[in-house]
């Protein structure tokens, strides 16, 4: 009997799932409540499956043996609730794709740093001659890679939303970069729900697998005390020397795994800032596990170009440096950005607030920020948090205006930093769109 799959959402994960399901002999129906982007429509027309947009035809969806829902659709959505009442399994694209591959997986999650770590690992693997493909929450969907693929390793960035929909999915190497309050609007504003979601990356791991994590992160440390983990633990730390794992000694990164030792001077790392030292530790630990030559690891870490929209240096104009950190969609990411500023800073901030608390930024803003430009439709929270600290505060609702105001407020030697600490959906399509508009506005100055 032909199995039926209904796919909710016609974005990257939905299209990838459709391609894989079709290849595996499923009868496929794809349904998107919104409009499907033209590039994805093209694919749908080519693969000849049944699909619809701007509606959900429930009687068709309820005929499915399994439903894949895109990560953006919350579990509380009425249609998802009905599916569960009817006991129709609802899984994520990550889970569905994992049913059809035996290729080992490196899975990376965390509130911040996961895109950088994913790209850095992929870079080191490629330089080390290992055949690997990168995707998941960044780049290609996992399902599409499985449908097309022949590779020796998958390197997957995984969001908490993607991990929410797993049952059997298991990475051979799991990385948890850190946990800070984020997306709490999706988790009933309970931090423990969000933490549990992140820890799902290791729930199916066995004693033969590895779990790499930040040992300095208090939220992770607390959860580890409460949660037995089967995988072999490889922590990384800037604060303490470790028996097994990665730590700092005499300004060198040291990675020790079962009597093998790798060292590299922190000054040679391409990426600056304490958080990037941790990102490098996580990637170096993976490289050590995969037995990549030590010299290759060092060279890869030294020549890595970084990730677009993450502390990306755009241009210097009149000796003012413009930095695009549009990917900073939560307070903690912005904390890292402000911490790495070494000059007076004009800070562009704002967007859709996900339950932000700005207190932890106050000392940094006090020390480094000379002016704040609010870029959002509702800036009250930012104005209330920082209005008394910064003399210059301007509200604006367009990137062009924000950049032109920043140009007027910045003096020689200053930095203009776009690090919004918020989601982008009030004024932009996504954080990439926001970052590109920033770069364009800077180039047009």
Please explain how this structure is put together.
35% of the residues lie in helices and 22% in strands. It has 445 residues and is of the alpha/beta class. The protein folds into 3 domains: 4-91, Rossmann fold (3-Layer(aba) Sandwich), CATH 3.40.50.720; 96-303, UDP-N-acetylmuramoyl-L-alanine:D-glutamate ligase (3-Layer(aba) Sandwich), CATH 3.40.1190; 312-443, Alpha-Beta Complex (Protein-Tyrosine Phosphatase, Chain A). Strand 13 and strand 14 (260-265) form a beta hairpin. Helix 1 (12-23) packs parallel to helix 2 (38-47) and helix 6 crosses helix 11. The protein starts with a strand and ends with a helix. Belongs to the MurCDEF family. One of its GO terms (biological process) is regulation of cell shape. It is an enzyme of class 6 (ligase). It is found in: Cytoplasm.
């Amino acid at each position: 009997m032909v199995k039926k799959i209904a796919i909710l959402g016609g974005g990257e994960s939905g299209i990838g799932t459709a391609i894989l399901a079709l290849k595996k002999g499923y009868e496929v129906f794809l349904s998107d409540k919104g409009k499907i982007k033209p590039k994805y429509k093209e694919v749908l027309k080519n693969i000849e499956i049944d699909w619809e947009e701007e509606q959900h035809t429930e009687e068709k969806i309820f005929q499915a043996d399994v439903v894949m829902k895109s990560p953006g659709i919350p579990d509380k959505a009425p249609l998802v609730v009905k599916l569960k009442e009817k006991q129709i399994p609802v899984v994520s694209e990550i889970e569905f794709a994992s049913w059809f591959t035996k290729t080992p997986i490196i899975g990376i999650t965390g509130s911040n740093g996961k895109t950088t770590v994913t790209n850095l690992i992929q870079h080191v693997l490629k330089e080390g001659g290992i055949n690997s493909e990168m995707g998941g929450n960044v780049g290609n969907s996992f399902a599409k890679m499985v449908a097309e693929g022949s590779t020796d390793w998958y390197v997957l960035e995984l969001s908490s939303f993607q991990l929410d929909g797993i049952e059997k999915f298991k990475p051979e190497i799991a990385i948890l970069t850190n946990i800070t309050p984020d997306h709490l609007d999706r988790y009933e504003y309970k931090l423990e729900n969000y933490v549990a979601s992140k820890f799902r990356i290791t729930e199916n791991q066995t004693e033969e697998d590895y779990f790499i994590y930040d040992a300095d992160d208090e939220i992770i440390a607390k959860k580890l005390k409460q949660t037995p983990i089967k995988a072999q633990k490889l922590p990384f730390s800037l604060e303490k020397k470790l028996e097994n794992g990665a730590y700092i000694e005499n300004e060198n990164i040291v990675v020790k795994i079962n009597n093998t030792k790798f060292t590299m001077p922190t000054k040679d790392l391409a990426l600056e800032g304490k958080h990037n030292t941790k990102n490098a530790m996580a990637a170096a630990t993976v490289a050590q596990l995969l037995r990549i030559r030590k010299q290759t690891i060092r060279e890869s870490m030294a020549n890595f170009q970084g990730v677009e929209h993450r502390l990306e240096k755009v241009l210097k104009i009149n000796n003012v440096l413009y930095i695009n950190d549009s990917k900073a969609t939560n307070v903690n990411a912005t904390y890292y950005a402000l911490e790495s500023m070494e000059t007076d800073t004009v800070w562009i901030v704002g967007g859709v607030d996900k339950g932000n608390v700005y207190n932890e930024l106050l000392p940094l803003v006090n020390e480094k920020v000379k002016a704040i430009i609010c870029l959002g439709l509702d800036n009250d929270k930012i104005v209330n948090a920082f209005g008394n600290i910064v003399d210059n505060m301007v509200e604006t609702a367009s990137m062009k205006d924000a950049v032109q105001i920043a140009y007027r407020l910045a003096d020689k030697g200053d930095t203009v930093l776009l690090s919004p600490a918020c989601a982008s959906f009030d004024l932009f399509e996504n954080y990439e769109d926001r970052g590109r508009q920033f770069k364009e506005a800077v180039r047009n100055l």
